[in-house]
Amino acid sequence: MSLPARTGAQRQARRRATRGRRRALWLASAATVAALLAACGPEGAGAEPGACGGATCTPDQVCVYPPGDCGEGGIVPGNYGVCQPRPASCDTATPREVCACDGHVYANACEAARAGVSIGSGEECGGAAPPGTVACGSYFCDAASEYCQSVEDPHDELFKMPTRRTCEEIPTPCMAEPSCDCLAAAAADPREGDCSSAPACTRGESGSFAVRCTGDLY
């Protein structure tokens, strides 16, 4: 399985949109926790908060956490899930297998939400990847046309965002003979990726590639 090829401009636009959504989620999460603390008082007194960010989801809702969190708290301390309606249909969802918090692999994030489960970190599924794919955090990349890119936030722990792992298409110039040198050079190009440090590339026994670097995720 592979997704349609994107131009450099489309990839940049997608990454800018992703950074914006993540920053908005972080700010919304912080605001939610602050509101809960204010409601409970300085000593945390008051009613026991619900299981999902202080709320209790109805049967037709799913508690959604940032990918990889599963309600354990990672971006800000505490429980900051959000109850959202379960999708009625996933017919138009982007095909991208995901590892969910229940340890099962779903066809995409929409199908996981329909089942009432948030996206996991990847560890919940024991590293087992569907045929033809390679595990990449919460997702599974097409082994023939994509590589796993991990971007780590260089900020101090208090403001540190979780490492972002995404499936990136192997650039056209690298497709004829994929190599770590070619992929690292592409990832270092500011027009292509979010790396602010020299990317480190490794190649697994199956031939799949993984690129790691640091970069501003805000």
UniProtKB/TrEMBL annotation:
Protein's UniProt keywords contain Signal = yes
Q: Which PROSITE patterns match?
A: TAT (PS51318)
Q: Please list where the region (Disordered) is annotated.
A: 1-21
Q: What is this protein called?
A: Kazal-like domain-containing protein
Q: Does the keyword Signal apply?
A: yes
Alphabetical list of InterPro entries matching this protein: TAT_signal
Q: Which UniProt keywords apply?
A: Signal
Question: Signal peptide location in the record?
Answer: 1-38
Q: Composition bias, kind Low complexity: at what positions? A: 1-11
Basic residues composition-biased segments: 12-21
Q: Which residues cross the membrane?
A: none
Which organism's genome codes for this protein? Sorangium cellulosum (Polyangium cellulosum)
